[in-house]
Amino acid sequence: MKKILFVTSACLCLSACGFEPIYGTHLQSNAGQESVQSQLAQVEIDGIPDRSGQFLRNALIDKFYRKGRPQSLRYTLHVEPIKESTIDLDITKSSDATRAQLRLKTAMILKDEMTGEIVLTRSLRSIASYNVLTSEFATRVSAQNMRENALNDLARQIELQIALYLKRN
Asked: Which domains does the chain carry?
């Protein structure tokens, strides 16, 4: 009984505080307003140098153009080249690393093509760690998997930052 009362009161509190999901479809019913997802589809994604940049751009394309690429594009997203660094974390007495940390850092710039103004700039970073094993192949696979996870995290951060901007404006 207490559980039901708690869940009911939590739902009432959430509805009273003005909580709205970013990707909710209820915005489509409001006259003259577009959903955030349809606005995300109006963002042109510039090329990003290097293999990591290509992976990040493809992840952003998958997130932004879910129904295909639209004809009219209002915004341009420029992502700076990704800076990558690896740090050895857990070092044994024989000076061998058993854990490493991958750090990715970049910046994004969103430009409104209608006004020519830069409307959003953000610095972004993602950190992932992996085990350094005795098998070189297993270590490389683990490092590549963590790199892809970190790049997907950067894509989620970029999507969230742009979605929040579009929701507010």
From this structure: 27-168 (3.30.160.150)
Taking only the tens place, the pLDDT of each residue in 2-38 is 777 777 777 666 655 555 565 554 444 444 456 888 8
Token pair recorded at residue 99: 């854990």
Task: Give dist(CA 7, CA 46) in Å, integer.
Answer: 45
The Cα angle at residue 21 between residues 161 and 152, in degrees rounded to 5: 40
In whole angstroms, give the CA distance from residue 73 to residue 66.
Answer: 15
CA distance 50 to 72: 28
The DSSP string of 30-76 is STT---HHHHHTTEEE---SHHHHHHHHHHHHHHH-TT---S---EE
